[in-house]
Amino acid sequence: MLGAATDQVNILAVAQAAGLSLTPIQGGRQFTTRCWMCEFSYLGADTKKQGHLTIRPDKGVFRCPRCGHSGNAWTMANELFGEARGKEVLRQARWYNGPKWEDAPVADIKTRDAVYRALLNKLILSPRHREDLSDRGLSDDIVNKRQYKSLVGWESTRGICNLLLKEGYPLEGIPGFFQDKYGQWVFLTLPGFLIPVEDETRMIQGFQIRVDDNYRTYLETQNKNIPGKYISFSSAGRKKGCSCGALIHVAVPEGKSLQNNRVWLTEGPLKADIASQYTDMPFLGIPGVSLYRQAAEKAVEMGVKRTAVAYDMDFKDNPHVKKAEIELLKELFGRGISALPVNWSEGYGKGIDDAAVFISNGQIPIPKDVLERTFRPNNKIILEVQIKLKTE
Ligand SMILES: [Zn+2]
Known about the structure:
Elements: H1 2-7, H2 11-17, E1 23-25, E2 30-33, E3 53-56, E4 61-63, E5 70-72, H3 73-81, H4 83-93, H5 109-121, H6 127-136, H7 140-146, E6 149-150, H8 154-166, E7 177-179, E8 185-187, E9 192-198, E10 204-211, H9 213-221, E11 230-232, E12 249-251, E13 263-267, H10 269-279, E14 283-286, H11 292-301, E15 306-309, H12 319-334, E16 338-343, H13 352-359, H14 368-371, E17 385-386
Parallel strand pairs: 13-14, 13-15, 15-16, 16-17
Antiparallel strand pairs: 1-2, 2-3, 3-4, 4-5, 6-9, 7-8, 9-10, 10-11, 12-14
Helix pairs in contact: 2-3, 2-4, 3-4, 10-13, 11-12
The protein binds zinc ion (ZN).
Zinc ion (ZN) binds near residues 35, 53 and 67.
């Protein structure tokens, strides 16, 4: 009953009742505030002036990109007021008549794929970015086949959009594209490169942007908001824009199938591409460790039976990743999918991509017999296996 009721509650009213300091962003369509859950994560309290937690009144939800905490009006009321008082706040908030807005509906995958490929055809990969990808271990072949491309300046986005429109591509409903204050079509850009996110049929669903480190450092010296290293190519909350949602990249080596092989899950499309190249295994690249439910649902949707979860090995200093890994394993087990947590010596590198590149000598690094074993949680305890990757 509460689930249905919360849909009609304005989440802003709850936030205001809690006395949260709200900063409007996206032209007032969203608000940020300091996240109350961050301090329970390894990151520590959210001390950013405007806060990291973003509230979307149009959808009645909030999410913190820093610690991954998310929820709706009821979650917020329950956490900030406790259950009894929370219900009362919710009852009062139902009459709040706040502003409403909606994203443009997202175009179907075929249209998105066509527009995104036409966009990529108009972009190049700068030598600096190519070198960066090569240093990470990604082969030139894959870089070309997957069409990694560098982003351009704002002015150029206008010209490219005009070309796309002239060629007959619709830009409305394509996440990442939106209209600027002059009503001209542009797309999200900042110094960095685009990583195409493909689905299981190799269609481009969207992109992740790898933001240049020197740009992030520059913003830091200017005391400005620093974007994450990886951000989504999305135009949610912009004029005629829309959200790309949580896009999971599917990297399947030639001749492999998702159904007949153990599918590895790791963080992000770039890691998935690199690790897949070196292990010759199918990989799913999840855009954020806290998106475990979406990842498990995607695995079910694709008919995946067996998985291995290879999250970063820095969880000794990073309990947030460890917790996310356990949640993902639970979600997978709960859907009848076998899931194997994979650990390796930290000396081989933090990510599975680093480890795979490090060990790469033309062999699959993980002993097959270990992979074929199935682990299940026992009394809520997730069994953990230490897999020793062989260097010899
Ligand atoms: Zn947070």
